[in-house]
Amino acid sequence: MFKKSWMWDTKEFWSGYPHHMVTDDIFWYYTIKIGFYYTVIVSQFFDVKCDDFWIMFTHHIVTVLLLAFSYVCNFTRVGSYIILLHDCVDAWVEFGKLATYLDFQMAANISLTIFSFVWFFTRLMIFPYK
Q: What is the reported pTM?
């Protein structure tokens, strides 16, 4: 996506709308993300039940609906941008969880700190201003 012109100039999200072609890379990006969230929805029922089970279940359902809506309405440029911004923190969250489960507290704390900074920067700085 970094080669897309609209990635750097967000005014191009709407240039020529609704006649945007969905390129193969964006199609597969959406397909993989929707598939991922479907698997998370199903796998939640087989994992250890957490206190936030229904909140996360609802969150993943809403995420799939938003992805499908943005694809159907041809909002794929802005949708891809938002997915990318939201995905930046996922690796840090998962690494922090893994470190916590393995009882590597220092690594978990570092991961949580990095997660906090990345989340703050992407969701409270880039997202509202771009």
A: 0.80
